[in-house]
Amino acid sequence: MKTPAFWSEPNFLSRLLKPLGAAYAFATRLRIGLGRPCKIGRPVVCIGNLTAGGTGKTPVAVAIAGLLQQAGKNPFFVSRGYGGTLKNIIVDKEKHTASEVGDEPLLLARRAPVIVNPDRVAGAQKALRSGAEVIVMDDGFQNPGLYKDLSFLVFDGGFGIGNGLSVPAGPLRENFAAGLKRAHAAIILGEDKHNLSAKIAGIPIFRGSVVPVRPEVSDTDAVAFAGIGRPEKFYASMRELGFNLVETVDFPDHHRYTELNRLIDKARGKDALLFTTAKDFVKIPTQMQKYFRVLEIEIRWEDEAALSKFILDNIR
After folding, report:
1. 1: pLDDT confidence band, cut at 50, 70 and 90?
2. How many C-alpha atoms does 184 have within 13 Å on its Cβ side?
3. Is 300 helix (H, G, I), strand (E, B) or coil?
4. Sequence-ordered list of residues with C-beta below 8 angstroms from that of 193, at least 6 positions apart, any chain
5. Positive or negative CA dihedral for 212, 215, 219, 220?
């Protein structure tokens, strides 16, 4: 889903839905409290969030796996494979499609092996049998099944925690204070426009930025489309690179595309390049990818050495 506008600040609709949000937060807290996390004998690093949609969690997971690899570790990702049909498999990025394993696992697989399984414990055990030294969970902070040796909470500095209410009244997956108590560190991406750092007490805060990788072509007309939580961030990056966006088209998060030919015709009619995100690009059939261009992104850390040291110190 695209992040609803009323999640940004309190209003009539959010107040109307507040009791449902409180019930959702209570149910989440109860489920977590009743859980008995399983230790698997190897360190588990969880990259999670407290808000639904668009924090930058997946690129952070990719970046942290890269730091582990630089330190000589062999990380495996474990993902639930949202939207996919295959379970308990190692993702083959050359063979599997997003409809089989989900879009995020295909992105993760460009960095390190990925096990897809909604049962995180079974997925982690399969990873260990396949040679994993460290498990990196992309999401799963609210999943009580697998014990986490190190949990990061990722926040979008531009969005913060929105109106501070729980789904469906706001963006929070659980109570903010309760979630912070289980985290070992926070990551704020971008400018901290809502003073999150003052609200996050007792745990280290690491800072970074989502940086677009400049494509070979820029400073030209483009049609841009995205099926992510906050597509406006993608469009802003395109404009910062000098593109003139003659049209933007939003789709729900994890959208399965049936409109690709229409998008191609739209760009041709405007004599414009057709751009999308890496997350959306992996969902395009291989034979059609030549008509689309992708804007890659990466995480640039404010203090990469400090973050790397913190991770290694906590997984020994």
Report:
1. low
2. 16
3. strand
4. 157, 158, 160
5. negative
* Cβ atoms 205, 188 nearer than 8 A: yes
Are β-strands 114-116 and 221-226 bridged in parallel, bridged antiparallel, or unpaired?
unpaired
Across-strand partners of 116?
A: 79, 89
Q: What is the pTM of this model?
A: 0.94
Question: Rounded to 5 degrees, what angle do the CA atoms 98, 254, 226 make?
Answer: 105
Residue 302 φ/ψ region, left for φ over 0, alpha for ψ in the -120 to 50 degree band, beta for the rest = alpha
Q: What is d(CA 43, CA 46) in angstroms, rounded to the nearest whole number?
A: 10
pLDDT one-digit tens code per residue, 74-91? 999 999 998 899 999 999
CA distance 143 to 35: 9
- Cα distances from 74 to residues 45, 180, 263, in angstroms, run 13, 28, 40
**Preceding amide of 118 cis, omega within 30:** no
With tokens 């690009």, the residue in question is 281
- Cα–Cα distance measured from residue 116 to residue 17, given in angstroms and rounded to the nearest whole number: 34
CA distances from 150 to 108, 113, 141, 199, 203 (A): 19, 20, 10, 20, 12
3-class DSSP assignment, residue 49 = coil
Helices and strands in the chain, H and E counts: 11, 13
- Whether 249 and 223 have beta carbons less than 8 Å apart is answered as yes
